[in-house]
């Protein structure tokens, strides 16, 4: 009995593949549409990518013929969503964007805007790499929020924007910190200054103030004698900026050590 059932499944599978190949090769677009839709629906039911991949091959063949026709909207959406559900985000981002422009009044327009944005969110790289896709995702998510303030995906969009913002903040922070660690102290001071202005609410705010001060301090004490007084005085102002906001932290203890040294050096200089 098991052998018979297995044989039937093989025959059915072979017949199904044969029908697919036949439809794939014929010229009529109606059978292609029906089979593509059937495969797409089967993909939704089973969550198996093989059905989306087969459907996409048929969508690619019929999309030009359905352009401008009532069914074109359905075909375009299913094609974009197939790529999205397969995780082909580079293409789904573009396809959903094109869909929303071609069918702005579609009931799927809101979803298309969101999924286009999410596609760019999904391909956003780690913070150390180029963040062009991250910026695009943030722009598209913000567009969705502005366009659909009561939309289904409002909260998710907000959450994703915050996540992406943190990634960009960290990229700029690490660039500034790299200047500091490579002893390019002037560049570090300027970079941290710009960082604090650009991201006033950043989670790395204390670190930015501290490393700006530390850069100024290390620059001063490693300068030639004639430059030390002026640079020590500048470092002192940065310590005052830092200590206005932060006390009782691990970094603040180190900052106090630097500040004490600055005070001693200043007193010594005054005595001379």
UniProtKB/TrEMBL annotation:
Pfam families: YfiO
Membrane recorded as keyword: yes
SUPFAM superfamilies the record matches: TPR-like
PROSITE patterns: PROKAR_LIPOPROTEIN (PS51257)
InterPro entries: BamD, BamD-like, TPR-like_helical_dom_sf
Signal peptide bounds: 1-17
Protein's UniProt name: Outer membrane assembly lipoprotein YfiO
Species assigned in the record: Psychroflexus gondwanensis ACAM 44
């Amino acid at each position: 009995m098991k052998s018979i059932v297995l044989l039937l499944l093989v025959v059915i599978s072979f017949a199904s593949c044969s029908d697919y190949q036949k439809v794939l090769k014929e010229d009529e677009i109606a059978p292609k549409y029906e089979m593509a839709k059937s495969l797409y629906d089967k993909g939704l039911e089973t969550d198996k990518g093989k059905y989306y991949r087969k459907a996409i091959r048929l969508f690619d063949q019929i999309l030009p013929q359905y352009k401008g026709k009532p069914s074109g909207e359905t075909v375009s959406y299913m094609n974009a969503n197939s790529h999205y559900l397969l995780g082909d985000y580079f293409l789904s981002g573009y396809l959903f964007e094109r869909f929303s422009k071609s069918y702005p009044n579609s009931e799927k327009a809101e979803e298309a805007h969101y999924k286009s944005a999410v596609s760019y969110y999904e391909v956003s790289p780690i913070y150390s790499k180029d963040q062009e896709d991250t910026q695009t995702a943030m722009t598209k998510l913000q567009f969705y929020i502005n366009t659909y303030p009561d939309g289904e995906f409002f909260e998710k969009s907000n959450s994703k924007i915050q996540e992406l913002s943190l990634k960009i903040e960290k990229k700029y922070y690490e660039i500034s910190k790299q200047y500091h660690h490579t002893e390019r102290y002037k560049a570090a001071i300027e970079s941290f200054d710009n960082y604090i202005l650009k991201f006033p609410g950043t989670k790395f705010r204390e670190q930015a103030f501290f490393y700006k001060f530390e850069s100024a301090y290390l620059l001063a004490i490693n300068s030639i004698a004639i430059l030390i007084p002026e640079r020590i005085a500048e470092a002192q102002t940065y310590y005052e900026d830092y200590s206005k906001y932060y006390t009782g932290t691990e970094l603040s203890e180190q900052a106090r050590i630097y500040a004490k040294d600055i005070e001693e050096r200043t007193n010594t200089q005054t005595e001379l």
